[in-house]
Amino acid sequence: MIEAPSIAVLTLGVVASAADAATRRIPNALTIGAAAVALAFAAATGGVSGLGWSVAGWIVGVLLFLPLFALRARGGGDVKLLAAFGAWLGPALVCWVAVYGAIAGGVLALLLVLWRGRLRATIANMWDIVTHWRLSGLKPHPVVTLDNPGAVRMPGALSIALGALATLWLRVW
């Protein structure tokens, strides 16, 4: 039997991915609303310990993507989406969502740069970022960021949603 948190996570993933693909944004009402519903659901079904577990999952979700947001490698909507997944799934499973989401994101990004014929430029940019970090410390690159209008960008919600799908599917098996 499929549990309510799994249905909520899958629904959130689909809606967030569609919104991100269409508008390049994940609405705050969606992510914050989903997290609030998750906290209320956890409190109603698990009491104080359920609420604590949900809050812990939300915090872990934020902390996993906050460094990437600070480096301008992930958008704020991605951080809030992973946090909302954490509120529904808890601290352990949200870590798996991030891991599987990173794998999915890497595969999707590789396919995207190959499709657009930008593999060589992407490898050069990655090398430039690593060199920048080595010389200037771990801070955002002045050019190669999400803020660069010429950058090839991919909706982050899709990879996070695929990470959630993989996590839920592997949990069942």
Q: What is the number of helical segments per DSSP (H or I, 4+ residues)?
A: 6
Largest sheet: none
Task: Write down the overall geometry.
Answer: elongated
Query: What's the mean pLDDT score?
Result: 91
**Radius of gyration from the CA trace?**
17 Å
Strand and helix order: HHHHHH
Helix-strand category? mainly alpha
* pLDDT < 50 stretches: none
Strand segment count: 0
Describe this structure in words.
The chain has 173 residues and is mainly alpha-helical. 79% of the residues lie in helices and 0% in strands. It has helices at residues 4-23, 28-70, 76-89, 91-115, 119-136, 156-172. Helix 1 packs across helix 2, helix 1 packs antiparallel against helix 3 and helix 2 (28-70) packs across helix 4 (91-115). The chain is elongated.
Give the helix/strand layout:
Blueprint: H1 4-23, H2 28-70, H3 76-89, H4 91-115, H5 119-136, H6 156-172
Helix pairs in contact: 1-2, 1-3, 1-6, 2-3, 2-4, 3-4, 3-6, 4-6
Brief overview:
The chain is mainly α. It contains 6 helices and no strands. Helix 2 (28-70) crosses helix 3, helix 2 crosses helix 4 and helix 4 (91-115) packs across helix 6.
